[in-house]
Specification:
heterodimer; A: about 270 residues; mainly alpha; MetI-like fold; 2 domains; about 0% strand; B: about 350 residues; alpha/beta; D-Maltodextrin-Binding Protein, domain 2; nine-stranded mixed β-sheet; two-stranded parallel sheet; 13 helices; 11 strands; disordered N terminus
Amino acid sequence: MSAPPPNRHPLDAGHAAYLALNGALLFFLLAPIVVVVVFALNPTPYISFPPVGVTLRWFDKFFAGADFMKALWLSLWTASCVLVLSIAIGGGCALALARGNLPGRGWLTAFFMSPLMLPAILTGLALFQSYLLAGIGRPVWGLILAHTLIAVPYVLRTTLAVLYNFDRRIEEAAAVLGASPARVFFEVTLPLIRPGVFAGGVFAFIVSFDQFPVSLFLVVPNGETLPVVLFNYMKFDLDGAIAAASMISILLALSVVLVLEKLIGLKAYVKL
Amino acid sequence: MSLHSISRRNALRTAAGFAVASLVGAPAILHAQTRTLKITTWGGKWGDIMKTSVLPAFEKEFKCTVQADQAFPFVPKLQASPRNDPLYDVLHTNSNEQWNSLTEGLVMPKITAKEVPNIADVYSYAVSDKIVGVSIFTSAIGLGYRTDKGLAPPKSWKDLANSKLAGVRGGYVIPVNSLGQAHFMMLGMVYGKGLTDLDAAYKALEALKPIKLVDFTGQMEKMLLSGEVSMGVIHDSGIYRYDGQNQPVDFAIPSEGVLALEQVLNVTPGSKVKDLAFSYIDYMLRPDVQKLLAEGVWYSPSNKKVKLDTKYDAKLFTSEAKVAQLIQPDWKWYNARKDDIDARVTKILRG
């Protein structure tokens, strides 16, 4: 009796096309990052290919720039606040929508998702006008609230996805065994929806950290976020410091994803 | 306890109370007296000089605080703020945006020597009928080129159309860049009847294809430095700022003249500190402040009394004869037609 054939896909035309498409997509997604890396490490103050050497001077310039550092910390602070707020608000809304038997649930979901449908630049402009008319100026908490408005739908959507795929019999079993509603929530519901909530939180953090159109109208002099500072810098000094800043942003976003993955295991959510 | 001792104690208490109150209240009173001037200003080297030297000295002299916004877009933010409590007291933009702002009633139509005494010393272009407010500096839009590509220094704007420059000439995305818009008008003048000859400009623009287009002047500088562009439309300071850095680039003044890229200051009608706003403009026109900024960023000062060091004086527009080469576009006319022009040039450059 001969051995069973190995479990391999024959390299037919369809499979080759599939691989080529995937390769092309990966290239499309990663090529800009490669350009950024080359620009950040190249000594010339402009994009040149092939690179003429390797330098860290643009990173030096970025970290030595008081404006860059102030903006970086403001962006990190804002994104961290947005992460917490959007998890609290988005997670709470998702629970209410999925479990609350609320009338007009579809409409409410659409309402909470609506900030994603409006062009962010208009959201920024509208909030800017509202803040000025209300006489509160442009405080940092106003910027954080604006970012939260944009970020909440991400948490809402990912948490709702988990809640709709949730086996409610587990909660019922806990209740039948005598657990109070609070205990059921904290010991059964929350651990199960956590990956969805935190996956949304990661999106919220990144959306806030990279937020440009909304911030454009809401930042104040000497209180600009990193994307706004980079945009203005680019108008006058287009050099490798921009690429260095972009690399730092990419690494920070990646770090947040990796830390959360380590802490709460986002893979679990991916499997859902 | 005697009446005398009580009264002395009371007196001491009262005195101590006043002392504490004055210590606690002093910063608040001082703060209340400190006025804030809200301005817009550029970033880059200009912004560095402003932040480190110019504004601190102004704040000290006028006992005020200056809030300088470097984050674009200035005019939309001003538009969206209440007219009676505008976001800015002084608006610093190029001339085209000042005209737009005037149409919206966001800035004052004219500033005179009565409000800003140093205006008496400026070149006439700085307060001409093509200017809303006052131009404190100008740079000259001409042609930047590589000196290592075997190109003869350009003598005319027509040299940009040289067939050898196909694909290595540089221009701007006209709808979003005022240098691009000014160059477009210049095409009308060079190839047609004048700056307002749109048909000639459209035709000449078509002939410049293939052309590399950028959004910002900073990008054009880098394209020239990298050699991606051999000749491009740029303002003189965008080239001169690399003076002494051994870069193979230079700036040429075409025989037809250069276009003025004015740095204009103006006051918002609703400003609550108008006197301070005028003082700031006057301060920016002082010869010492003008010299500091002119030599820092290679802008030509508007004040005739400014004496620049030789190397700057040789290149910048610092005499009546040199200033006569500046051509000021009619931005009011252009802005009124901007939408149509944008649509047409986009179609031309896309096709």
